[in-house]
């Protein structure tokens, strides 16, 4: 696998909270420093974040809230994460733009794909906020859609507490086996819960590869971008499987 020139990084909301509700500035600063390292290496970086450290629409629905309204609350939480990440990236000296799917002109640009691509070409990090701007869509699906529309080469899914795709949840099942490579079709058929199935289908149909890896140790994002074989490659075909698996 060779290095990438334009990537979309998917971060869960839990990354921003450090295991708590809200934003942990120390954690966001570390994430920003890693992204800045990638940008300084000459790689164009777009980011999609979750909002689970503030709200999850599906969970609020289970507590009696109307789902669409709960999802919109989650989108606002995502924008808060975007602004926190933007602040720490700019403290690292990295020009950053937040593009929001919900209009909020005082804090973010509207989502305009061609403008996003232009920002990336100029070396700016682009953070896509407010999800899809529509209820019932997960940020996993948003990551796939934004990567395709901004012409990224790969979706990088950074995970906390797990370093790739396993046959089962390794935190619950000690017999779970890590996979070096899996196709989208097989992941869907086996019910592997890395991202939601809509995101898998979107990436698979458009032959957009995905690398799932752990945030630890520090520097993992840059290693993946440079083409090091860590984590799990998810692709459309078995033929995309790396030949030299033992180097993973």
From TrEMBL:
Pathway: Pyrimidine metabolism; CTP biosynthesis via de novo pathway; UDP from UMP (UMPK route): step 1/1. Belongs to the UMP kinase family. GO terms for biological process: UDP biosynthetic process. InterPro entries: AceGlu_kinase-like_sf, Asp/Glu/Uridylate_kinase, Uridylate_kinase, Uridylate_kinase_bac. Pfam families: AA_kinase. HAMAP family: PyrH_B (MF_01220_B). It catalyses: UMP + ATP = UDP + ADP. One of its GO terms (cellular component) is cytoplasm. This is Uridylate kinase. Coiled coil: none annotated. Residues 6-213 form the Aspartate/glutamate/uridylate kinase domain. It comes from Rhynchospora breviuscula. GO terms for molecular function: ATP binding; UMP kinase activity.
């Amino acid at each position: 696998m060779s290095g990438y020139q334009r990537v979309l990084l998917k971060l869960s909301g839990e990354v921003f909270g450090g295991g708590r509700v809200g934003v942990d500035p120390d954690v966001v600063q570390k994430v920003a420093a890693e992204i800045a390292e990638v940008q300084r290496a000459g790689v164009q970086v777009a980011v999609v974040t979750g909002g689970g450290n503030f709200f999850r629409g599906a969970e609020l629905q289970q507590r009696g809230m109307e789902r669409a309204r709960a999802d919109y609350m989650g989108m606002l939480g995502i924008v808060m994460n975007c602004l926190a990440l933007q602040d720490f990236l700019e403290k690292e000296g990295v020009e950053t733009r937040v593009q929001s799917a919900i209009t909020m002109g005082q804090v973010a640009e509207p989502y305009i794909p061609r403008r996003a691509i232009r920002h990336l070409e100029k070396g700016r990090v682009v953070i896509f906020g407010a999800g899809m701007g529509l209820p019932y869509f997960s940020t996993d699906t948003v990551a796939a859609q934004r990567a395709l529309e901004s012409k990224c080469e790969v979706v990088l899914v950074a995970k906390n507490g797990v370093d790739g795709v396993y046959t089962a949840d390794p935190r619950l099942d000690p017999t779970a086996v890590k996979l070096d490579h899996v196709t989208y079709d097989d992941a869907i058929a086996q019910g592997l819960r890395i991202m939601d199935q809509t995101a898998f289908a979107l990436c698979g149909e458009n032959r957009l590869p995905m690398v799932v890896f752990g945030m630890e140790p520090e520097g993992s994002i840059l290693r993946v971008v440079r083409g090091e074989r860590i984590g799990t490659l998810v692709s459309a075909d078995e033929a995309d499987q790396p030949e030299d698996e033992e180097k993973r």
